[in-house]
Specification:
31% of the residues lie in helices and 19% in strands. The chain is an alpha/beta fold. Strand 13, helix 10 and strand 14 form a beta-alpha-beta unit. The structure holds threonylcarbamoyladenylate and magnesium ion (MG).
Amino acid sequence: MQTEILTVSSIVEDIDKINKAGKLLREGNVVAIPTETVYGLAANALDEKAVSEIFKAKGRPQDNPLIVHISEVYDMEKLCDSVPESAYKLANAFWPGPLTMIMKKNDTVSETVTAGLDTVGIRCPRGRFARAIIRAAGVPLAAPSANTSGKPSPTCVQHVIDDLNGKIPAIVDGGACSVGVESTVVDLTTNPPTLLRPGGITAAQLREVLGELNEDRALTQNVGEGEKVRAPGMKYRHYAPSAPVVILKGAEEKVYDYLLKQSKDKKISFLCYGEESKKRLPEGVEIEVYASSDNPEDLARGLFDALRRLDGRDIDIIYARVPENGDGLEQAIVNRLEKAAGFEKVEL
Ligand code: TXA
Ligand code: MG
């Protein structure tokens, strides 16, 4: 299949391309689209056949539900059995934006979308092209991240091309994603609500609106295959380059000593901060920078691109720096790296 790239830089000037993407989606095709978080692989959420094409193109496990994207906040009412008060509060504070809310679904949403669950994840994205494409399609769009399953999520069009060229009819290129990590997922069917995936809206921001917020155990530990989890996506190895990833924690000197020792009998890469790349790292240690340590927004934007640059290289192991955890954007960065590492960590 020939994949057409529809490059957009203005809603007004590129309206024909946006309408073309909308028409392809309405007619049951799968199209990759830009959002403010990561690129999504979209299909008409009300068309089961179209939705099943998403699973095929990505190689996604059938038991991992998809997020439904809407352009108007109140469209959530059309997809849910009942909308809790907390959803209106969160929508008021953070939509359009990088927040997905899990609520009880109604019959409009098929179990192909929700992987058999009676709940649905809904997000109203802030990305202007995403919203324009949903409007042009005239239907809600089911969309996971537009990567091959297991690989780091795509934050620019080249990542989507690398994974999906020839497998889907079109990719809309709207430039680099401004957030760079996926949306925060919060389950509103529990009391208090549960954070299932940290992301662009922080736990601290959610607590300001909700008061109490629980955090799912899959955020901080491996959950085995076959175990029942609240966010099915959290049990798979994810965001992973081909070589194993191990997180290094500890003071700079200790980390560099450790790298030196390891580099004697292994080919290693070190995913580090910008400021470290200017220091004298042990010879033979290949470095890859994601951003400087004092800027979590840049770290989030740079993370998946760095992981993709590390993918497919002839190396034995990747050691990675992670920021201090907390309830800010760092939590999303730590979560993605811990998932990539399968929670492997060396404390020095
Ligand atoms: O930022 C994002 O959320 C991006 C863009 C494209 O919007 N989408 C995205 O989708 O990251 P995906 O499929 O890669 O991740 C969705 C996550 C998965 O971990 C999935 O298990 C969880 O949300 N999820 C979706 N529906 C759910 C539900 N009903 N209950 C629990 N978890 C759900
Ligand atoms: Mg994904």
